[in-house]
Amino acid sequence: MSNKLLELSGVHTHIGAYHILHGVDLSVPRGQLTMLLGRNGAGKTTTLRTIMGLWKASQGTVRFDGHDITAANTPDIAARQVAYVPENMGIFSDLSVKENMLLAARQAKRLNQIDSTRLQWIFSLFPAVEKFWNHPAGKLSGGQKQMLAVSRAMVEPRQLLIVDEPSKGLAPSMINNMIEAFAQLKATGTTILLVEQNINFAKRLGDHVAVMDNGQVVHAGSMQALAQDEALQQQLLGLAI
Questions:
Q1: Is residue 169 part of a domain?
Q2: pLDDT at position 239, please?
Q3: Which of 75, 79, 77, 62 is nearest to 4 (CA)?
Q4: Is residue 116 part of a domain?
Q5: Which stretches of the chain score pLDDT less than 70?
Q6: CB of 225 within 8 A of CB of 49?
Q7: Which residues make Cβ contacts (< 8 Å) with residue 141, sequence separation at least 6?
């Protein structure tokens, strides 16, 4: 079994007339948390959407768990136990929190078929999900919606969890809850690919890091090494972390 659960090789993506990804090479080690960093507009979200088949690679290969998924449709990729939390969260506003969670549980048709132990674990990480269980999801605050979005991705065991900026717009106390959730997920052996602008978030969680610029990965290595090298941080990100 390869140590690489997910691997992108020479991936190009066009959106209409725009050439966004210019040969992305990215490896996501199995059972680790990989941070995907870069300035705004570097191509991070496009990379995630290409992995999920929402946008199709025009060149190159995306392999997951040894299988070529470059041309696969999004539902087929999700069926391989891949969960994706987009930057806009993708909440169904007119449905209750409970109904949002049930929709995300692919193996459950009724609420009592969801693993109750796992559900209680999610409630312990995100008490607001339990508190507003029967409320319309659209009535939640932005931070509560973000917690619901991550909770949906966690409701069943996943091989790979892909999350786009989970701390965006969260209060510091909520960010700590989110960090704890991902730390516990990582401890279960779940592989995680995370786009994040909060550098403290990245430093506390990341095992590996890939930095993007202008539609390419320009640096890959350990998160700890990047966190300790201020000159490299300035070179890659234009800031010191």
A1: no
A2: 61
A3: 62
A4: yes
A5: 1-2, 239-241
A6: no
A7: none
CB 144 within 8 A of CB 128: yes
Do 86 and 164 contact (CB within 8 A), yes or no?
yes
User: Which token pair is 8?
Assistant: 């992108």
Spatial separation of the C-alpha atoms in residues 234 and 86, rounded to whole Å: 28
Q: How many residues does the chain have?
A: 241
- For residue 108, the enclosing domain spans 92-156
CA 118 from chain center: how many Å?
A: 19
- Cα–Cα distance measured from residue 39 to residue 213, given in angstroms and rounded to the nearest whole number: 7
Looking at the whole model, is its pTM more than 0.85? yes
CA 78, 84, 86, 90 torsion: positive or negative? positive
Number of domains in the chain: 1
Whole-number percent of the chain with pLDDT over 70? 98
Helix (H) or strand (E) holding 84: strand 82-85
Residue 97 domain flag: yes
At which residue do the structure tokens 């025009």 appear? 58
Instruction: For residue 214, tell me if it sits in a domain.
Output: no
Cα(116)–Cα(122) distance, rounded to whole angstroms? 10
Q: Residues near 88 by Cβ (< 8 Å), separated by ≥ 6?
A: none
Look up residue 124 and give its amino acid: S
Hey, what's the torsion of the CAs at 16, 71, 80, 146, to 10 degrees?
Answer: 0
Tell me how crowded residue 187 is: count the other CB atoms within 10 A of its CB. 9
Residue whose pair of structure tokens reads 């949002």 in the numeric block? 100
What separation, in Å, do the N-terminal and C-terminal C-alpha atoms of the chain show?
A: 35
Strand pairing report for 208-213 and 33-38? parallel
